[in-house]
Design brief:
heterodimer; A: 257 residues; alpha/beta; 9-stranded mixed β-sheet; two-stranded antiparallel sheet; 13 strands; B: 305 residues; Rossmann fold; 2 domains; 7-stranded parallel β-sheet; 5-stranded parallel β-sheet; 18 strands; 26% helix; elongated
Amino acid sequence: MKILVCIKQVPDMESRFKVDSAGTWYDTTELVWRMNEYDEYGVEQAVQLKEQTGGDLTVLCIGPDRVKETMKKALAMGCDRGAHVNDPDYATRDPFEIGAIIAEYASDKGFDVIFTGMQSQDRGSAQVGVLVSELLGIPAVTTIVDFVLEGSTVNVKRELEGGIKAKVSVTLPALFTCQLGLNTPRYPTLPNIMKAKKKELLSIPVQDLLKVAFRLETVSMQLPEKKGGGLVLEGDAGELADKLITILKEKTGVLAK
Amino acid sequence: MKALLIAESREGKVLGSCSELVAFAQKAGSDSVMFMVGTDSNLPAYDGTIYLADAAKYGEYNPAVHKQLILDVVTKEKPDMIVFSHSSYGWDLAPRVAFALEAAQFSEVADIVDGDPVVPACNSKLRRRLKAKSTVKVLTLQAGAFSLAEPITASPNVEKIDTDTAGKVTFLGYEEAPKGGVDLGKAAIIVSAGRGVGGKDNIPMVAALAKALGGEYGASRPVVDAEWVEHARQVGTTGQTVSPKLYVACGISGAIQHLAGMKKSEFIVAINTDKDAPIGEVADVLVVADVKQFLPALTERLQAG
């Protein structure tokens, strides 16, 4: 079984974001980078599938050199090799270009299963996985929270709104986009982190794989306007608690005056 | 300008987000037609033509078939925009339709500014204005971003459609949410735990504040995924939708999926170390503090009070 998992490196969402000098993306200096949370579930599912089938697992990531750090985590979690698509301009690519890069890489490799995150935490388009499947002509099942392989059939559950799940079965090859809560992503152990350093991490220039033109461009990026209605309280915990109780007594009927 | 609005139906019932599609077309100043895989005994309120495919025949989840049905309507109506909700149905289907039409897709559109769609980035901490290179555009709309000033009461004019495409996936049925003992929808006061509470060991702190206030405790999705709190207490799109008199969000950053489940609460207090957290956008009071220090201080005073 040949498995591909696609991951993205994103900033920690707790960061304080600033708009860059071009005004079209966030400033990438002084940010802490990590693996897109949805992709952690994808890597874990891919590693479990590899363990179940004795398969071969490649992790792919598009971005500048710094994404190799995030790829090393995926290798330490159990991926066999890394394919780093070296692209310093990755942030300007639209979902169609990103999907086309991945599909071009995968087109001659015969992957049975491809995992992606359901969306990225920074851009959140939720398009890339589905576009890869359309480009490769294989079925995609999105937003999965359960994955069971039986023979060449996969039974999954898709998470819908209101806590309902749809049960779907599909024959391989197929692509799956992973929702949060699909599994419990493992922490890489120290021996596995050491082993990961020796694993193959191939770098491919983006020019070799990018053969389409973008369809979407960013006019501008902005901080949202503060609606400004809310009161912001800062200070010592005890004083804050007193202040909040006063406010709750005045503004809500839930505390006795 | 013409928009094709993709309505949603589940288990024979039209989903409420259909009216948001109509509201979007109004705001964009666009004519519209509608499409739905559903049943003619349950149609959305809509003053126009709806192209209806039979859910009993095509299934409620069958992306390749639904895509073909939509493409057939596109050929007939030649819309400038195809508009979905940014939901499990929309985000699955929209990229397939966009790909087939070689169209650009705008995901989770929250607003239209000078004709350009605006979408969120980085957990709503940033917003992007986008432009398409293609003439035809595909959009998915953020839940709650567009709403009608007045509800529609008209019934649509139905045109039935068919296709002979076969799909590659098999829809086996639905699995209902596990029944829990907690109906947060009835609670007047809810104190919810987010990832910022730091760990499972701190959940009793949240439960204690809920008790001191005479309410229930809930949780955001990451807390439920990490199994700190059971799913029955999850607030948000994939959990319960609540509108209590008081909602206290403890260490919850405010992902759109969480906000959709609680922003109609009468009074919202957020406790967060991050002053820029999106929860601040809906909070009446934002207490900038560490949950672990602030909660015990508040609970102690309420118990003494």
